[in-house]
Write a structure and sequence with these properties.
By secondary structure, the chain is of the alpha/beta class. It is built from eleven helices and eight strands.
């Protein structure tokens, strides 16, 4: 890997412009009011200010401590058992989403290998609470792999979210090093199995570029995702959260992201969001609404 790239100044295309503060302050106040966290904050997303200022956020449920230690992720991890679940969290998410005037809600979580169902039931209860609170709401769930627990997948499917998202994150060659404790094939199987459980629900996944993968690795990962039934794809630049995390190998230029968008569309994806600042839930509603018509430009 390119050691000099680890701490080199980010290129201009990775700088998200400021969008003011008034609406962002309101969103923070709502989250504080209901004692909720977001992956935007915990994962140190570069789009946090932009999204908050535009009235959106991605809710992080099941606590803020992960039972795994993926080398790219800023979210805290613990060898010991995380805090117990809060049974009122689904209702608090629903109240916050209603107060934020959201018509499209994205829910994600830490990985909870300590729970028998990996948190699948908690996802389902959150989906139900949102549907009870907000008429006509669209819901996207971005789930962990539940350790391959098929019953957990069935529970989520029975709740009928509008989009099922599980991120592959990286290519097969790097997977075991970057994501210890799980496997490339397990992630693909989660997507494939969910697609069989709920054939009418769009499947979504995402990859980070710039961890050390080569073009052939990316092509294979995109092909494998499409073969697993995924129709919605996100491609974004990996950014190193701290010096202890996996180093950035390179900064992928915007034109290359355009090329990968075109390749993915040629592979049969319906919706592809591809760009340096793209993240799995960035403009998720736009990504969903374009699923029937094709490419997304962000």
């Amino acid at each position: 890997m390119n050691a000099e790239m680890k701490y080199k100044k980010k290129p201009d295309w990775l700088k998200m412009p400021s969008r003011g503060a008034e609406e962002a302050a309101r969103i923070r106040a709502v989250l504080l009011k209901y004692s909720l966290d977001t992956v935007c904050r915990q994962a140190r997303c570069p789009n946090l200010g932009y999204c908050y200022q535009h009235g959106t956020a991605t809710f992080l449920i099941l606590g803020n401590v992960c039972t795994r230690s993926c080398r790219y992720c800023a979210i805290g991890s613990a060898a010991e058992k995380p805090d117990p679940l809060h049974p009122d969290e689904p209702e608090r998410v629903a109240k916050a989403a209603a107060e934020m005037n959201l018509s499209y809600v994205v829910i994600t979580s830490v990985t909870r290998d300590d729970l028998p169902d990996g948190g699948g039931g908690h996802f389902a209860r959150t989906v139900k609470a949102l549907r009870d609170k907000i008429e006509g709401v669209k819901i996207e769930v971005l789930t962990p792999d539940f350790n391959g627990n098929n019953a957990a997948l069935e529970t989520v499917a029975e709740a009928e979210p509008d989009v099922f998202n599980h991120n592959l994150e990286t290519v097969e060659k790097l997977f075991s090093a970057v994501r210890p404790g799980t496997s490339y094939n397990l992630s693909l199987s989660i997507l494939d199995r969910y697609g069989k459980l709920s054939p009418s629900t769009p499947l979504k996944s995402g990859l980070m570029l710039g961890l050390g993968e080569q073009d052939d690795d990316i092509r294979k990962a995109i092909h494998d995702l499409r073969s697993s039934g995924v129709t919605m794809l996100t491609l974004g630049q990996y950014l190193q959260p701290s010096r202890r995390h996996w180093p950035v190998d390179r900064y992928v230029i915007p034109e290359e992201f355009d090329n990968w968008r075109n390749f993915a569309l040629s592979e049969g994806f319906n919706s592809v969001a591809s760009g340096p600042l793209v993240r799995s839930s960035f403009h998720a509603e736009l990504n969903y609404s374009s699923e029937a018509v094709g490419s997304v430009s962000l």
